[in-house]
Amino acid sequence: MGDKVKVGKFGSKGGSVMSPERILVVDDDKEIVRLVRAYLEQAGYQVLTAYDGRDAWRILQVERPDLLVLDLMMPEIDGWELTQRIRREPALAAMPIIMLTARVDDTDKVLGLELGADDYVTKPFNPREVVARVRAQLRRMRLLNNSGGRYDILTVGPLRLDVARHEATLDGQPLDLTPTEFKILQTMMMQPGYAFTRAELIEQALGYSYEGLDRTLDSHIKNLRRKIEPDPKNPTFIQTVYGVGYRLNDEIDAPRSESLP
Protein backbone atom coordinates (compact mmCIF):
# COMPACT_ATOMS: atom_id res chain seq x y z
CA MET A 1 0.00 0.00 0.00
CA GLY A 2 1.10 3.59 -0.54
CA ASP A 3 1.79 6.29 1.98
CA LYS A 4 -1.10 7.43 4.15
CA VAL A 5 -1.29 10.86 5.70
CA LYS A 6 -3.74 13.11 7.40
CA VAL A 7 -6.32 14.54 5.04
CA GLY A 8 -4.26 17.09 3.19
CA LYS A 9 -4.18 20.79 2.50
CA PHE A 10 -5.67 20.52 -0.96
CA GLY A 11 -8.39 17.96 -0.47
CA SER A 12 -9.45 18.33 3.14
CA LYS A 13 -12.01 19.98 5.30
CA GLY A 14 -9.68 19.64 8.27
CA GLY A 15 -9.56 17.05 11.01
CA SER A 16 -7.15 14.30 11.91
CA VAL A 17 -8.68 11.25 10.22
CA MET A 18 -6.13 9.27 8.25
CA SER A 19 -7.06 9.08 4.59
CA PRO A 20 -5.43 8.13 1.28
CA GLU A 21 -4.03 11.00 -0.74
CA ARG A 22 -6.22 11.82 -3.72
CA ILE A 23 -4.98 12.04 -7.29
CA LEU A 24 -6.89 13.47 -10.24
CA VAL A 25 -5.91 11.81 -13.54
CA VAL A 26 -6.97 13.70 -16.68
CA ASP A 27 -6.55 12.36 -20.22
CA ASP A 28 -8.88 12.05 -23.19
CA ASP A 29 -7.49 8.53 -23.78
CA LYS A 30 -9.68 6.38 -21.53
CA GLU A 31 -7.27 3.44 -21.69
CA ILE A 32 -4.45 5.59 -20.32
CA VAL A 33 -6.72 6.82 -17.54
CA ARG A 34 -7.75 3.25 -16.71
CA LEU A 35 -4.14 2.04 -16.63
CA VAL A 36 -2.78 4.92 -14.52
CA ARG A 37 -5.75 4.68 -12.17
CA ALA A 38 -5.20 0.96 -11.63
CA TYR A 39 -1.53 1.42 -10.72
CA LEU A 40 -2.18 4.39 -8.45
CA GLU A 41 -4.97 2.57 -6.63
CA GLN A 42 -2.73 -0.45 -6.23
CA ALA A 43 -0.19 1.91 -4.62
CA GLY A 44 -2.82 3.01 -2.10
CA TYR A 45 -4.04 6.28 -3.55
CA GLN A 46 -7.61 7.39 -4.11
CA VAL A 47 -8.07 8.30 -7.77
CA LEU A 48 -10.45 10.74 -9.43
CA THR A 49 -10.69 10.84 -13.22
CA ALA A 50 -11.70 13.17 -16.04
CA TYR A 51 -11.47 12.98 -19.83
CA ASP A 52 -11.42 16.66 -20.77
CA GLY A 53 -10.20 19.92 -19.27
CA ARG A 54 -13.61 21.37 -18.54
CA ASP A 55 -14.68 18.39 -16.42
CA ALA A 56 -11.27 18.40 -14.74
CA TRP A 57 -11.66 22.08 -13.77
CA ARG A 58 -15.03 21.36 -12.20
CA ILE A 59 -13.61 18.44 -10.21
CA LEU A 60 -10.62 20.48 -9.08
CA GLN A 61 -12.81 23.24 -7.67
CA VAL A 62 -15.11 20.85 -5.83
CA GLU A 63 -12.81 18.05 -4.70
CA ARG A 64 -9.44 19.82 -4.21
CA PRO A 65 -7.24 16.72 -4.87
CA ASP A 66 -3.70 16.45 -3.54
CA LEU A 67 -2.06 16.11 -6.96
CA LEU A 68 -2.96 16.34 -10.65
CA VAL A 69 -1.74 14.06 -13.45
CA LEU A 70 -2.62 16.03 -16.58
CA ASP A 71 -2.47 15.36 -20.31
CA LEU A 72 -1.41 18.34 -22.42
CA MET A 73 -3.56 17.75 -25.50
CA MET A 74 -7.24 17.58 -24.51
CA PRO A 75 -10.60 18.83 -25.77
CA GLU A 76 -12.54 21.72 -24.22
CA ILE A 77 -9.64 23.07 -22.12
CA ASP A 78 -6.11 21.87 -22.86
CA GLY A 79 -3.42 21.14 -20.29
CA TRP A 80 -1.64 24.44 -20.77
CA GLU A 81 -4.73 26.54 -20.09
CA LEU A 82 -5.80 24.34 -17.18
CA THR A 83 -2.38 24.70 -15.56
CA GLN A 84 -2.58 28.48 -15.88
CA ARG A 85 -6.02 28.50 -14.28
CA ILE A 86 -4.80 26.38 -11.39
CA ARG A 87 -1.79 28.59 -10.68
CA ARG A 88 -4.05 31.66 -10.63
CA GLU A 89 -6.51 30.06 -8.18
CA PRO A 90 -5.30 30.61 -4.57
CA ALA A 91 -7.01 27.48 -3.24
CA LEU A 92 -5.31 25.30 -5.86
CA ALA A 93 -2.09 27.14 -6.67
CA ALA A 94 0.21 24.99 -4.51
CA MET A 95 -1.07 21.66 -5.87
CA PRO A 96 1.64 19.61 -7.62
CA ILE A 97 1.04 19.00 -11.34
CA ILE A 98 2.61 16.19 -13.38
CA MET A 99 2.08 16.65 -17.10
CA LEU A 100 1.70 13.84 -19.62
CA THR A 101 2.89 14.69 -23.11
CA ALA A 102 2.97 12.64 -26.30
CA ARG A 103 5.35 15.13 -27.89
CA VAL A 104 9.09 14.64 -27.78
CA ASP A 105 9.88 18.28 -28.51
CA ASP A 106 11.65 19.80 -25.50
CA THR A 107 9.88 23.09 -26.23
CA ASP A 108 6.56 21.63 -25.10
CA LYS A 109 8.09 20.24 -21.92
CA VAL A 110 9.80 23.51 -21.08
CA LEU A 111 6.62 25.48 -21.78
CA GLY A 112 4.68 23.22 -19.44
CA LEU A 113 7.22 23.78 -16.68
CA GLU A 114 7.25 27.51 -17.29
CA LEU A 115 3.48 27.60 -16.92
CA GLY A 116 3.76 25.94 -13.52
CA ALA A 117 3.94 22.16 -13.93
CA ASP A 118 6.24 20.43 -11.44
CA ASP A 119 7.22 17.45 -13.58
CA TYR A 120 6.39 15.73 -16.85
CA VAL A 121 6.23 12.20 -18.24
CA THR A 122 6.58 11.50 -21.95
CA LYS A 123 4.26 9.01 -23.65
CA PRO A 124 4.56 6.09 -24.04
CA PHE A 125 5.45 5.57 -20.39
CA ASN A 126 5.71 2.85 -17.80
CA PRO A 127 2.82 3.39 -15.32
CA ARG A 128 5.22 2.48 -12.50
CA GLU A 129 7.19 5.60 -13.43
CA VAL A 130 4.07 7.72 -13.02
CA VAL A 131 3.50 6.19 -9.56
CA ALA A 132 7.12 6.96 -8.62
CA ARG A 133 6.78 10.57 -9.76
CA VAL A 134 3.50 10.95 -7.87
CA ARG A 135 5.03 9.51 -4.72
CA ALA A 136 8.06 11.83 -4.97
CA GLN A 137 5.93 14.96 -5.45
CA LEU A 138 3.62 14.09 -2.54
CA ARG A 139 6.57 13.29 -0.30
CA ARG A 140 8.03 16.69 -1.11
CA MET A 141 4.74 18.40 -0.28
CA ARG A 142 4.55 16.63 3.08
CA LEU A 143 8.04 17.84 3.89
CA LEU A 144 7.02 21.38 3.00
CA ASN A 145 3.81 21.25 5.01
CA ASN A 146 5.37 19.60 8.05
CA SER A 147 8.82 21.11 8.02
CA GLY A 148 10.84 20.46 11.11
CA GLY A 149 14.14 21.52 9.57
CA ARG A 150 16.78 23.98 10.65
CA TYR A 151 14.71 27.06 9.95
CA ASP A 152 11.03 27.86 10.23
CA ILE A 153 11.64 31.17 8.49
CA LEU A 154 14.48 32.07 6.11
CA THR A 155 15.48 35.56 5.08
CA VAL A 156 18.15 36.62 2.62
CA GLY A 157 18.03 40.32 1.94
CA PRO A 158 14.47 41.19 0.88
CA LEU A 159 13.61 37.52 0.30
CA ARG A 160 11.66 35.79 3.08
CA LEU A 161 10.40 32.21 3.21
CA ASP A 162 8.02 30.97 5.89
CA VAL A 163 8.58 27.24 5.48
CA ALA A 164 5.86 26.07 7.85
CA ARG A 165 3.22 28.25 6.19
CA HIS A 166 4.66 27.73 2.71
CA GLU A 167 4.69 31.49 2.09
CA ALA A 168 7.29 33.50 0.20
CA THR A 169 7.66 37.28 0.01
CA LEU A 170 9.98 39.77 -1.67
CA ASP A 171 10.15 43.21 -0.04
CA GLY A 172 7.03 42.23 1.86
CA GLN A 173 5.07 41.41 -1.30
CA PRO A 174 3.83 37.82 -1.72
CA LEU A 175 5.48 35.65 -4.36
CA ASP A 176 3.35 33.25 -6.38
CA LEU A 177 5.67 30.22 -6.39
CA THR A 178 4.88 26.68 -7.44
CA PRO A 179 5.78 23.93 -4.94
CA THR A 180 8.89 23.08 -6.96
CA GLU A 181 10.01 26.71 -7.18
CA PHE A 182 9.48 27.13 -3.44
CA LYS A 183 11.59 24.07 -2.63
CA ILE A 184 14.41 25.11 -4.96
CA LEU A 185 14.50 28.59 -3.44
CA GLN A 186 14.34 27.13 0.08
CA THR A 187 17.27 24.83 -0.67
CA MET A 188 19.37 27.70 -1.99
CA MET A 189 18.43 30.01 0.90
CA MET A 190 19.60 27.39 3.37
CA GLN A 191 23.12 27.77 1.95
CA PRO A 192 23.47 31.21 0.36
CA GLY A 193 26.71 31.59 -1.53
CA TYR A 194 27.11 27.86 -2.04
CA ALA A 195 27.50 26.82 -5.69
CA PHE A 196 25.08 23.93 -6.19
CA THR A 197 25.67 21.60 -9.08
CA ARG A 198 22.54 20.84 -11.04
CA ALA A 199 22.58 17.29 -9.69
CA GLU A 200 22.83 18.54 -6.09
CA LEU A 201 20.00 20.99 -6.53
CA ILE A 202 17.77 18.37 -8.13
CA GLU A 203 18.53 15.84 -5.39
CA GLN A 204 18.17 18.21 -2.44
CA ALA A 205 15.24 20.27 -3.73
CA LEU A 206 13.26 17.67 -5.64
CA GLY A 207 14.39 14.50 -3.91
CA TYR A 208 14.93 12.38 -7.01
CA SER A 209 16.47 12.38 -10.45
CA TYR A 210 14.78 12.03 -13.81
CA GLU A 211 15.53 12.31 -17.50
CA GLY A 212 16.19 15.78 -18.79
CA LEU A 213 16.98 17.11 -15.32
CA ASP A 214 19.23 19.88 -16.66
CA ARG A 215 16.55 21.35 -18.90
CA THR A 216 13.89 20.88 -16.24
CA LEU A 217 15.93 22.61 -13.53
CA ASP A 218 16.90 25.42 -15.90
CA SER A 219 13.22 26.03 -16.63
CA HIS A 220 12.40 26.30 -12.93
CA ILE A 221 15.34 28.66 -12.38
CA LYS A 222 14.15 30.79 -15.31
CA ASN A 223 10.70 30.98 -13.72
CA LEU A 224 12.14 31.92 -10.32
CA ARG A 225 14.23 34.67 -11.85
CA ARG A 226 11.20 36.03 -13.66
CA LYS A 227 9.37 36.26 -10.34
CA ILE A 228 12.10 37.59 -8.04
CA GLU A 229 14.69 39.41 -10.13
CA PRO A 230 14.43 43.13 -10.99
CA ASP A 231 16.03 42.19 -14.33
CA PRO A 232 15.82 38.44 -15.05
CA LYS A 233 18.39 38.75 -17.84
CA ASN A 234 20.91 40.18 -15.37
CA PRO A 235 20.06 38.27 -12.18
CA THR A 236 20.96 39.65 -8.78
CA PHE A 237 19.69 36.85 -6.55
CA ILE A 238 20.17 33.55 -8.40
CA GLN A 239 23.54 33.55 -10.08
CA THR A 240 24.79 31.11 -12.70
CA VAL A 241 28.11 29.49 -11.84
CA TYR A 242 29.38 28.50 -15.26
CA GLY A 243 30.50 24.91 -15.50
CA VAL A 244 28.92 24.14 -12.11
CA GLY A 245 25.31 25.21 -11.61
CA TYR A 246 23.63 27.91 -9.52
CA ARG A 247 24.03 29.79 -6.26
CA LEU A 248 22.06 32.33 -4.27
CA ASN A 249 23.96 35.58 -3.88
CA ASP A 250 25.16 35.76 -0.27
CA GLU A 251 26.26 39.39 -0.52
CA ILE A 252 22.70 40.70 -0.51
CA ASP A 253 22.41 40.03 3.21
CA ALA A 254 23.19 37.26 5.69
CA PRO A 255 20.42 34.72 6.27
CA ARG A 256 18.59 34.72 9.57
CA SER A 257 16.61 32.01 11.26
CA GLU A 258 13.48 32.72 13.26
CA SER A 259 11.10 30.67 15.32
CA LEU A 260 7.43 30.68 14.62
CA PRO A 261 5.24 31.88 17.47
From TrEMBL:
Database matches in PROSITE patterns: OMPR_PHOB, RESPONSE_REGULATORY
GO BP terms in the entry: regulation of DNA-templated transcription
Domain OmpR/PhoB-type: 151-250
Keyword Transcription regulation applies: yes
Molecular function per GO: phosphorelay response regulator activity; transcription cis-regulatory region binding
Residues modified to 4-aspartylphosphate: D71
Any Pfam family: Response_reg
GO cellular component, one term: protein-DNA complex
Domain Response regulatory: from-to ranges: 22-138
Entry keywords, A to Z: DNA-binding, Phosphoprotein, Transcription, Transcription regulation, Two-component regulatory system
DNA-binding region: 151-250
Source species, domain of life: Bacteria
Gene3D superfamilies: 3.40.50.2300, 6.10.250.690, Winged helix-like DNA-binding domain superfamily/Winged helix DNA-binding domain (1.10.10.10)
Ranges that cross the membrane: none
UniProt name for this protein: Uncharacterized protein
Native source organism of the sequence: Ardenticatena maritima
